[in-house]
Specification:
The chain has 2 domains: 1-79 and 171-256, Rossmann fold (3-Layer(aba) Sandwich); 89-169, no CATH class. 36% of the residues lie in helices and 23% in strands. It has 9 helices and 10 strands. Strands 6-7-8-3-9-10 form a 6-stranded mixed β-sheet, sandwiched between helices. Strands 2-1-4-5 form a 4-stranded antiparallel β-sheet, with helices on one face. Helix 2 packs parallel to helix 5. The two termini are 37 Å apart. Bound molecules: adenosine-5'-triphosphate. One of its GO terms (cellular component) is plasma membrane.
Length: 256
């Protein structure tokens, strides 16, 4: 059984078929990337999987469970976390507090217990802090842990965005353009984080990315989409040399 199975997924916004008949499966432990030209439907696929959008058609299975009818807030506790292309952090909170917010999906105590700060609440709080400190150490964010997001360089905020998703403690992490806006050196760092996430944390990674050197370096398999529809699927080399993919990219710099 695959960790994630997407079957005949579609969403239509009025006349726009943003996603139209996309199927793929992500196996536990692999890095799977979705590529495609601007407007191909990649972020929309992420928004459908993370349940921000309701599909017009299709089914999404995660870890053996049909998550298609679930609400967005019910997804993270199952072990599915995501990052956003445009970074969704609280600018006026510290790195530590942003990561702790990522843990709130795991609330096991109720508000009365929280108010009274009973031992169960204190234990849960300690466990959340330990998990967050592990993420800070893993992503080498120690120097920034007490700094406000607003004052951080863009490249560091991108890493904190990954940290917020990791703090959830996911089985599957969805990375939406983790290298966008980064320098070549910073993109290479992202490649190392992804390899470490898989090797050290046993994570499965589903990534949307335009940076083909990053995609080629870290991905086991790639799905190419265009106009909301699947074009080709296979190893990075197979997909890059597929004539339908090359035609979809014609005129762009991706394959030069
Ligand atoms: N909420 C929405 N309402 C209407 N149209 C939408 C909505 N979300 C996405 N679309 C349309 O769906 C299509 C796919 O958009 P999407 O953002 O998924 O593409 P993408 O492959 O992620 O592009 P990029 O690489 O530029 O981020 C586009 O035509 C877009 O305008």
């Amino acid at each position: 059984m695959s960790l994630l199975e997407v079957e005949d997924l579609a969403i239509h916004f009025g006349g726009v078929k943003a996603v139209d008949g996309v199927s793929f499966a992500v196996e536990a432990g692999e890095v799977f990337s979705i590529i495609g030209p601007n407007g191909a439907g990649k972020s929309t696929i992420f928004n459908l999987i993370s349940r921000l959008y309701k599909p017009t058609r299709g089914k999404i299975m995660f870890d053996g469970r049909d998550i298609t009818p679930l609400q967005a807030h019910e997804i993270a506790p199952l072990g599915l976390a995501r990052t956003f292309q445009n970074i969704e952090l609280f600018d006026h909170s510290t790195v530590l507090d942003n990561l702790l917010m990522g843990r709130h999906t795991h609330r096991s105590t109720n508000w009365v217990q929280d108010m009274l700060f009973v031992p169960a609440v204190r234990r849960a709080e300690r466990a959340h802090r330990r998990k967050v400190e592990d993420v800070i150490e893993f992503l080498e964010l120690e120097a920034y842990r007490d700094k406000l997001i607003a004052g951080l360089p863009y490249g560091v905020r991108k890493v904190v965005e990954i940290g917020r998703a990791l703090a959830v403690g996911p089985k599957l992490i969805l990375l939406d353009e983790p290298a966008s806006g980064l320098s070549v050196e910073e993109s290479q760092e992202v490649a190392y984080w992804i390899e470490d996430m898989r090797r050290d944390m046993g994570l499965t990674v589903l990534m949307v990315e335009h940076d083909m050197s990053l995609v080629t370096q870290v991905s086991d398999r790639v799905l190419a989409v265009a106009n909301g529809q699947p074009l080709a699927q296979g190893s990075p080399a197979e997909v890059q040399s597929d004539p339908r993919v090359m035609a979809a990219y014609l005129g762009t710099e991706v394959y030069t």
